[in-house]
Amino acid sequence: MTFSLSRRTLLQGLCAAPFGSGLARAQTLTELKVASRIIEVNGRAAKIFGITNNKGGNGLSLMLEERFQVRVQNDLPGETLLHWHGLNPPSAQDGVPMLSQAPLKPGSFFDYDFVNTRSGTHWMHSHFGLQEQQLLSAPLIVRETAEPLFDEQEHVVMLHDFSFRDPQEILAELKGGGHANNSMAGMKMAMPGMLNDIMFDAYLANDRALDDPEVVRVGRSTQIRLRIINGAAATNMWIDLGTLKGELIAVDGNAIFPLKGSLFPLAIAQRADVRVKLPDGTGAWPILFRPEGQVTRTGIYLATQGAEIAKLPDEGEVAPKLDLVQEMKLRSVAVLPSEPVTRTEILALTGGGSDYIWGLNGKSAMHETIFTVHESERIEVIMQNQTGMAHPMHLHGHYFKVVAINNIPIEGALRDTVLVPPSISVTIRFATENPGNWAFHCHHLYHMNAGMMGTIRYSSAA
Ligand SMILES: [Cu+2]
Q1: What's the 3-state SS for 342-379?
Q2: From ligand 1's centre to the CA of 338, what distance in Å?
């Protein structure tokens, strides 16, 4: 059961036992506060948002067997609403304004309470307006065991793109047909092959640019599991291990058969768990995160105690654009039941002209019904990108299996977000087992806010 009350109402004592088991609940409820905070970027103070838990940490870490019992307190001067990206809550707790819940008023809170069935590296972010661009996001890690199964260290890295500008101003400029960057003003939008439609002031790894990177202290010959979250609003990235070799072991929180490498793509909103075995001896190793099509990069360092950090410039070679070469190779560990597909839907990704209106099947109303489903169906969706930009497509409330790329069948990964590059089709399958009304959208924040979002409705839902 959930409810929403202002702080004042709470003080007036009107929140009398809204739960069946008030005592047990009070012992486990975690509070997340959404508030403004200041960080330093390029030597300048930046006012952004953040999500702090009641232990003072960033975001949330819980065990799989724990019920998801979280109070979100809005300490912002304006409305907000958090979405649990990667979890499959009941739709009334999914945090999409005007679809699943009303936005949270300043000074009020909302109590979330559901059985969580999803483990892995996930995240939470505001689904309200353009707040995600102002770093209103945090890790959401669900562990299956209290201690790592292997003798390994763990570290969470959250990536962001950052601008000192007001995101509303960026969106207005994009809609005005200009490139959201002074030096490229007047440039037409979304030309074929265009990678980035916004120029950012910095790219951050755990809130820090490469001139002042986070240094993670590691033991000699340590094995480390990096849980990497692309929380950028509009930037696809590469994970670059440099001289180190690693293994990709999970995507979007779902285990895959390990894929060896040192360069892994990570589209907007996706997560990657990468296991790295450090060489013997002391040293410092940069892990870089490189936005596609850009020379600027960000990163962290893994360093043994006392090792000197030889700082890298924040510019390097141009990072290539993301493709689906890796996606073709991913194989999920979990096997989906082999029920036949009950229905195939075509979803055209459309728009992106000089008016900066984006859409799904040519429609650009954010809560437009894409299609209606019944419970216990096995739906196949063929997404066809008819635009000049890549779109990281995210389905709420479900995870899906990537089953074909350009109609070439694969036994692909289980995901909640998949990149669909220009002129490419990506086919996914999911089971309709979470009744409600669910957002399905491009996770590029400005594409979404310019119309590339719709709703999948269950016939059983209101
Ligand atoms: Cu998009």
Answers
A1: CEEEEEEEEECCCCCCEEECCECCCCCEEEEECCCCEE
A2: 31
Q: Ligand 1 mean position to 133 CA, how many Å?
A: 15
CATH assignment of 4-143?
A: 2.60.40.420
Residue from 37, 31, 42 nearest 136 by CA: 37
The domain 343-458 is classified under which CATH number: 3.40.50.720, 2.40.110.10, 3.40.50.980, 2.60.40.420?
A: 2.60.40.420
315 CA distance to ligand 1 centroid (A)? 26
Tens of pLDDT, residue by residue over 345-369, are: 999 999 999 899 999 999 998 889 9
- Considering the entire predicted model, what is its pTM? 0.91
| Residue 188, phi then psi, degrees to nearest 5 | -70, 150
DSSP one-letter code for 405? E
Structure tokens at 456: 């999948």
The pLDDT, as a whole number, for residue 147 is 81
pLDDT value of residue 28: 62
Residue 363 CA, ligand 1 centroid: distance in Å? 14
* For residues 168-180, average pLDDT: 81
Residue with the bigger pLDDT between 12 and 165: it is: 165
Please tell me the distance between residue 303's alpha carbon and the centre of ligand 1 in angstroms.
Answer: 37
Which of the pair, 354 or 122, is modelled with greater confidence? Answer: 122
